[in-house]
Structure formats: structure tokens, C-alpha cells
Amino acid sequence: MSGSTRPRARESSTWTTRRWLRVGAAVALTVLTLLGVTGAWMLEQTQSISTNLVDVKSPALSTSFRLESALLNQETGIRGYGVTGTPAFLAPYRQGLTDQATYTARLTELLHGDAAGLKDLKAVKDAADTWQTRIARPIAAAPAGTPSPLTTERAAEGKKAFDALRSTLSSQQQRLRTERAQAVENLSATMVLRNWLFTAIAVVIAALTVLVFEGLRRGITVPLDQLGAQARAVAGGDFDHPITPTGPADLRRLSGEIDFMRRRLVRELAFTEEARLRLDAQAADLQRSNAELEQFAYVASHDLQEPLRKVSSFTQLLQRRYGGQLDDRADQYIDYAVDGANRMQTLINDLLDFSRVGRVHHEPQSVDLDSVLERTLSSLSVSIEETGASITHDPLPHLAADPTQMGMLWQNLIGNAIKFHRPDHAPEIHIAAVREDALWRFTITDNGIGIAPEYAEKVFVIFQRLHTKDAYKGSGIGLAMCKKIVEFHGGTISVDPGYRDGARIIFTLADEPPKAVGPSTMPEASRADTDAAL
Fold it and tell me: Phi and psi at residue 446, in whole multiples of 5°?
């Protein structure tokens, strides 16, 4: 017994939700169909018995009473006419004959298929024919006005014949009463059975409904709720919470797949966490290394100032004191030394400025770029006057920025536009500003020598020069510093490669610098001491 139950349990445990629903729906439909067929049959039986009672049994009994009344009317009329000879007594007789024919035909119709009923009706008709043949018709045929002698002569025979007729009527009516009472009893019993049957159908339907809902609850709702709760626990961060398979085979398979995904996610998270820790360690090392390199470059540049200042001072002193007293080659060597010292001084100053961007800065404040531009143009007034430069600009916005760095940005961009002009053309420079979503887009357009498209990225790399120092002075740091300032303020900078009539530099700035911008990585005291020394 137990051995046969286990394989059946294993077989049912492999059923999917769809199979359970199909089997449950098939069983429910079968039960409902059987109940419906049974109920329909019971209703049909009740209707058949009720119809037979209403349309056959009761009308047959009442028609039999009417037939008896018609025969009694005939007997009364014939007896009165035979005793008195008065023709008025024949009217009930003749009406009784008509009614007899009508009721006999009606009974024949109602008792169709009822052999016993038709047999009783035939006995009544035969008894009526005997009485009418022997008594009624001869007396009715006698002349009116005088009593019929047949009335006296056949009185005993007539009484006997009509009593026999009444006896057959009584037998017929008794049978009809019995059949009607039986039909009423059958109808009552059928109605009771029908009521019990429909009560049982209602109970079965209710029980089936409860079973369906309970099956859905246990087989689908509860497993889904458990799966959802476990999935929510995992989604809430408890990745070690296991997913327990429950319910039909497909739900268990789904639970297994979700648990597999959870385990894989745990592995991925562990790997990611390990990678993040390594990345954080590398980022910390890189940040520390960058800070040390920045401070080293800053301090190294500062430390170069003093020996360079001595070299520059003594070479200039040598030039002033012994200039013209030595030969031409010595004067040339002295000029080379003075020029090299000056260029080294400029390069160190540029390096210091470059290292300060993003490292030494003031808190962002509201900056009027128009005012900053005017101060920049004032500082560049000598170059502007010498080259005859024409500089125009659109209205410039107010931004939250570092005002010193904004001045350095304009100084380098406009200074480059003036420096790299065409020898036979005065510089024409225009500065435009347009709002684009959350950023301001600035363009500085000039009619200078331009920048070839293949160098559009290279010009923003530190110490990258496109010309020799003899053609154009400079350290190759200016545009790299502009890129660092713009990116420090949350923007981008690039060269427009499609512009061919000169150079066009495009850069964007945000209304406020990014929140990630923080204070200098260099210690405050060290920074103050170093800047004071400079």
C-alpha cells in the first residue's frame, strides 16, 4: 500500500501549475456536468409528473364526473318524459346525449395510452349503450302527451341497467382517484427528492469551490508569497537568505533558478567587493602618489627659484659689467645665458601656476566674467596696441567660480589668439557666450594662423608646442592650464576642427563647480610657507 502511494506522490510532485490547473478544471467540469445532468433529469421528472397530474389525471377525473352528470341528466329527462309524456323533459335528455359524446371524446383523448383507463371508459360506454338501447331511446321515441307504457313495463330493467352504468362510472372514478392520488404522492416525493438533490448540488459546488480556492492557495498563492518574501529579503540586502523551493514543479524550478541567481550574485558581489577594496587601495595609493608628486613639483619648482635667481642675476651683472669688453663670441655666450635663465624663470613660474590649479584655490564666489575680461584686456593692453588687435564680446554671465583662475583662463586664451596672428593681418577676436541646458558654452574665434585638425587634441597636452621658440615665444603650458581650469570648474574645452578662417576654441562652464572640488591636498602651513617664500 505504502509502496504504491510513494510513486504516485513522486509523480504528482512533478506536476506543474498548468497541469494542476488542467486536472482541477477537468475534475470540476466533470463534477459540475454530472450534477447538471442529474439536476436536469430531476427537473424533467418533476415537470413530467406535474404535467401528467395537471393535464391528464385531474382533467380525466373531473371529466368523468361531468360524464356522470350528463348520464344522470339523461336518466332524469327520460324518467320524467316516460311518466308525464311532457316533451320538455326530452331537452335534458338530448343535452345529456351531446355532453356524453363530448366528455367521452375528451376522456378518450386524456386516457390515450392508458389501457386500464380506456378499458374502464369502454365499460362505461357499453353500459350506457345498453341502458340507452333498452330504456332511453324507446321511451324517447314514444308519442308525447301521454305517459309511456314502457316506463312501467321496464322500470325494474331500467333501474338495473342504470345501476350497472353507475357502478361502472364509480369503478372508473375510483381508479382515476387512485391514479391521481398516486400522481400527487409521486409529485411530492419527487419534489422532496429534487430539493434534497439541489441542496446536495449546492453543497458539492460549495465544497468544490472551497477545494479549488484552497488548492490555489496552497499550490500557488502560498508558494508565490513565500517566494516573494524570500526574494524581497534578498533584494533588501540579505543575500545569504536561501530561496526554499515549494509548490508545483514549475514554481520549484523558478525558486531554484532564483536561488541560483542569488548564489551567483553573492559570488559576483564578493568578487566586486574584493575588486572594490583593491581599487580603493589603489586609488588611495594613487591619490597619495599624486599629492606627493604635486607637492614635489611645487616644492621643486620653488627650490629652483633661488639658484636660478642667482644665475640670472650674475649673468645679467656679467653682461652689464663686461659687455663690450670681451670679444663678440663672449657677448653671444652671455646673451645665451641671460636668455636661458629668463626662459627658465618663465617656465618655472608657469609650472607653479599650473600646479596651483585644483590644488590651491579660493572658495567659489560669484564672478562677473565681463569684469574679469576687462581686467584681462587691460593687462594685455601692450600686446593689443602693438598688434592693433580688435576684440569684441557678447554679454558674459555671472558664474560661481575661482576669480583668479578665470583671469588666467582669459589671459591664456586671448593671449594665444593675439600671439598666433597672421603677420599681414591685425588680430580680430570675438568672444561669444550661449546658454545650453545647465552649462554655458563659450567660443573664442580669431583670424590667426589656426590649428590643424590633427593637432586639435595635442595642443592641450603640457609642453606640446606646434612651433619653435624662435617663431613664437612660450612654454607650451598655456592651453594645458586652460584645460585644467575648465575641467576643474566642471566643463570641457576643445578646438573646432571645422573652422578654417583661423582658430576657434570652444569651452563650457557650469553655474557652479562640481561638489567634488575640495580644498587643497597640500597642508595649509606648508602651502603658506612655500607661497610666502615665493
Answer: -135, 170
Enter the C-alpha cell of residue 167. Answer: 357502478
User: Looking at the predicted structure, is the pLDDT value of residue 35 above 90?
Assistant: no
Cell numbers that stand for 74 in this block? 339523461
Which 8-state DSSP code applies to residue 468? -
Q: What is the pTM of this model?
A: 0.43
Query: CA dihedral defined by 200, 204, 207, 211, rounded to 10 degrees?
Result: 170
Query: What is the rounded distance in angstroms from the CA atom of residue 391 to the CA atom of residue 200?
Result: 102
Rg (alpha carbons) of the chain, rounded to whole number: 63
- What would the DSSP string read from start to end of 173-222? HHHHHHHHHHHHHHHHHHHHHHHHHHHHHHHHHHHHHHHHHHHHIIIIIH
421 burial class (0-12, 13-18, 19+ CB within 10 angstroms)?
A: buried
Which amino acid is residue 443, in one-letter code? T
Q: Which grid cell sits at 92?
A: 335534458
**CB 25: neighbour CB atoms within 10 A?**
11
Nearest CA among 73, 89, 99, 97 for reference residue 142: 89
The residue written with cell numbers 395537471 in the block is 54
Averaged pLDDT of the chain:
80
Q: Mean pLDDT: which of 15-29, 178-192, 225-239, 254-268 is highest?
A: 178-192
The pLDDT assigned to 66 comes to 92
Q: Is there a contact between 251 and 17 (Cβ–Cβ < 8 Å)?
A: yes
pLDDT tens across 54-79, in order?
Answer: 888 889 889 989 988 989 998 898 88
Neighbouring CB atoms inside 10 A of 330's CB total 13
Question: Residue length, the chain?
Answer: 534
| Alpha-helical segments (H) within 218-248 | 222-235
Say which amino acid occupies 39.
G
Distances 334 to 346, 374, 394, 466 between C-alpha atoms, Å: 18, 39, 48, 28
Please, is 112 exposed, middle or buried when counting C-beta atoms within 10 Å of its C-beta (0-12, 13-18, 19+)? exposed
- In tens, the pLDDT along 207-247 reads 888 888 887 787 778 888 888 887 888 788 777 878 888 77
Which residue has 566643463 as its cell numbers? 491
Q: Is 1's pLDDT higher than 60?
A: no
Contacts of 176 (CB under 8 A, 6+ apart): 57, 60, 61, 64, 117
Q: Give a three-class secondary structure readout of 40-63.
A: HHHHHHHHHHHHHHHHHHHHHHHH
